[in-house]
Design a protein that fits this description.
alpha+beta; Alpha-D-Glucose-1,6-Bisphosphate, Chain A, domain 4; seven-stranded antiparallel beta sheet; Bet_v_I/MLP; Bet v I/Major latex protein domain-containing protein; abscisic acid binding; signaling receptor activity
Length: about 160
Protein backbone atom coordinates (compact mmCIF):
# COMPACT_ATOMS: atom_id res chain seq x y z
CA UNK A 1 0.00 0.00 0.00
CA UNK A 2 1.33 3.42 -0.97
CA UNK A 3 2.06 6.10 1.59
CA UNK A 4 2.09 9.85 1.03
CA UNK A 5 4.01 12.76 2.55
CA UNK A 6 3.07 16.32 1.68
CA UNK A 7 4.68 19.56 2.74
CA UNK A 8 4.74 23.12 1.51
CA UNK A 9 6.83 26.23 1.95
CA UNK A 10 6.68 29.85 0.88
CA UNK A 11 9.78 31.38 -0.68
CA UNK A 12 10.79 34.92 -1.60
CA UNK A 13 11.57 34.10 -5.22
CA UNK A 14 9.66 34.51 -8.48
CA UNK A 15 7.70 31.53 -9.77
CA UNK A 16 9.28 31.48 -13.24
CA UNK A 17 12.84 31.58 -11.87
CA UNK A 18 12.09 28.72 -9.47
CA UNK A 19 10.20 26.73 -12.11
CA UNK A 20 13.09 26.94 -14.57
CA UNK A 21 15.59 26.09 -11.82
CA UNK A 22 13.84 22.81 -10.92
CA UNK A 23 12.98 21.80 -14.48
CA UNK A 24 14.75 23.12 -17.59
CA UNK A 25 17.89 24.37 -15.82
CA UNK A 26 17.87 21.76 -13.04
CA UNK A 27 21.39 20.40 -13.41
CA UNK A 28 23.02 23.72 -14.26
CA UNK A 29 21.48 25.48 -11.25
CA UNK A 30 22.07 22.59 -8.86
CA UNK A 31 25.67 22.30 -10.02
CA UNK A 32 26.21 25.99 -9.25
CA UNK A 33 24.11 26.05 -6.06
CA UNK A 34 25.72 22.96 -4.53
CA UNK A 35 28.86 22.06 -6.47
CA UNK A 36 29.86 19.39 -3.94
CA UNK A 37 26.43 17.75 -4.02
CA UNK A 38 25.98 16.77 -7.64
CA UNK A 39 28.69 14.43 -8.87
CA UNK A 40 27.13 13.62 -12.23
CA UNK A 41 23.84 14.22 -14.00
CA UNK A 42 22.82 13.48 -17.53
CA UNK A 43 19.77 13.07 -19.70
CA UNK A 44 19.80 9.51 -21.00
CA UNK A 45 16.81 9.92 -23.31
CA UNK A 46 14.03 12.36 -23.99
CA UNK A 47 13.63 16.08 -24.57
CA UNK A 48 13.00 17.30 -21.02
CA UNK A 49 9.28 16.49 -21.05
CA UNK A 50 7.34 13.48 -19.80
CA UNK A 51 9.22 10.24 -20.35
CA UNK A 52 12.64 11.88 -20.08
CA UNK A 53 15.08 9.56 -18.34
CA UNK A 54 17.85 11.06 -16.23
CA UNK A 55 20.81 9.61 -14.35
CA UNK A 56 22.06 11.30 -11.17
CA UNK A 57 24.93 10.73 -8.75
CA UNK A 58 24.93 12.61 -5.46
CA UNK A 59 27.97 12.81 -3.24
CA UNK A 60 28.29 14.74 0.02
CA UNK A 61 24.65 15.25 1.02
CA UNK A 62 24.01 11.51 1.03
CA UNK A 63 27.29 9.63 0.46
CA UNK A 64 25.59 6.27 1.00
CA UNK A 65 22.98 6.98 -1.72
CA UNK A 66 23.83 4.96 -4.84
CA UNK A 67 23.56 6.61 -8.26
CA UNK A 68 19.99 6.54 -9.53
CA UNK A 69 17.79 6.96 -12.55
CA UNK A 70 14.52 8.85 -12.59
CA UNK A 71 11.86 9.30 -15.22
CA UNK A 72 9.90 12.51 -15.59
CA UNK A 73 6.26 11.51 -15.30
CA UNK A 74 4.55 14.90 -15.42
CA UNK A 75 5.62 18.24 -16.85
CA UNK A 76 2.90 20.89 -17.00
CA UNK A 77 4.37 24.32 -17.59
CA UNK A 78 1.01 26.12 -17.38
CA UNK A 79 0.25 24.62 -13.95
CA UNK A 80 3.90 24.65 -12.82
CA UNK A 81 3.67 20.97 -11.91
CA UNK A 82 6.41 18.37 -12.38
CA UNK A 83 6.95 14.87 -11.04
CA UNK A 84 9.71 12.29 -11.15
CA UNK A 85 9.56 8.55 -10.51
CA UNK A 86 12.55 6.54 -9.38
CA UNK A 87 13.21 3.64 -11.73
CA UNK A 88 16.64 2.31 -10.73
CA UNK A 89 19.22 2.59 -7.94
CA UNK A 90 19.23 5.31 -5.30
CA UNK A 91 16.40 5.05 -2.80
CA UNK A 92 15.20 1.90 -4.58
CA UNK A 93 18.37 0.22 -3.27
CA UNK A 94 17.76 1.51 0.26
CA UNK A 95 14.33 -0.01 0.96
CA UNK A 96 11.90 1.79 -1.34
CA UNK A 97 9.90 -0.38 -3.72
CA UNK A 98 8.48 2.71 -5.47
CA UNK A 99 8.63 6.49 -5.19
CA UNK A 100 7.32 9.52 -7.02
CA UNK A 101 8.24 13.10 -6.10
CA UNK A 102 6.00 15.94 -7.30
CA UNK A 103 6.46 19.67 -7.12
CA UNK A 104 3.61 22.14 -7.66
CA UNK A 105 4.39 25.86 -7.65
CA UNK A 106 1.83 28.60 -7.06
CA UNK A 107 2.49 32.31 -7.40
CA UNK A 108 1.70 34.27 -4.25
CA UNK A 109 3.01 37.60 -5.50
CA UNK A 110 5.60 39.09 -7.82
CA UNK A 111 8.52 37.54 -5.97
CA UNK A 112 6.78 35.03 -3.73
CA UNK A 113 6.11 31.39 -4.54
CA UNK A 114 4.37 28.58 -2.69
CA UNK A 115 6.01 25.22 -3.27
CA UNK A 116 3.93 22.10 -2.61
CA UNK A 117 5.89 18.85 -2.49
CA UNK A 118 4.30 15.41 -2.54
CA UNK A 119 6.18 12.15 -2.10
CA UNK A 120 4.25 8.96 -2.80
CA UNK A 121 6.11 5.81 -1.93
CA UNK A 122 5.98 2.13 -1.06
CA UNK A 123 8.59 0.33 0.99
CA UNK A 124 9.93 -3.15 0.31
CA UNK A 125 8.16 -5.86 2.30
CA UNK A 126 9.46 -6.41 5.81
CA UNK A 127 11.45 -3.17 5.76
CA UNK A 128 10.97 -0.56 8.47
CA UNK A 129 11.66 2.55 6.45
CA UNK A 130 11.01 5.22 9.08
CA UNK A 131 14.57 6.55 9.11
CA UNK A 132 15.15 6.31 5.34
CA UNK A 133 11.79 8.00 4.59
CA UNK A 134 12.69 10.85 6.93
CA UNK A 135 16.12 11.16 5.30
CA UNK A 136 14.59 11.17 1.81
CA UNK A 137 12.04 13.83 2.80
CA UNK A 138 14.81 16.00 4.28
CA UNK A 139 16.92 15.56 1.14
CA UNK A 140 14.05 16.75 -1.09
CA UNK A 141 13.32 19.69 1.24
CA UNK A 142 17.01 20.69 1.32
CA UNK A 143 17.17 20.48 -2.48
CA UNK A 144 14.45 23.11 -2.87
CA UNK A 145 15.95 25.32 -0.13
CA UNK A 146 19.37 25.14 -1.79
CA UNK A 147 17.95 26.12 -5.19
CA UNK A 148 15.93 28.98 -3.67
CA UNK A 149 18.95 30.27 -1.74
CA UNK A 150 21.01 30.27 -4.94
CA UNK A 151 18.30 32.12 -6.86
CA UNK A 152 17.93 34.73 -4.11
CA UNK A 153 21.66 35.46 -4.22
CA UNK A 154 22.15 35.35 -7.99
CA UNK A 155 18.99 36.66 -9.67
Amino acid sequence: MASKIEFQSEYEVGIEALWNAITKDKFDVLGKAAPLLLTEAQVLEGDGGPGTLISISIWSAAPHLPPFKEKMVEFDETKHAVSFQGIEGGMLKLGFAYYNVSFKLDELGEDKTLTKTTIIYEMDKDFDGTKVVEEFTNLIDEYIKTVVSYLQKNY
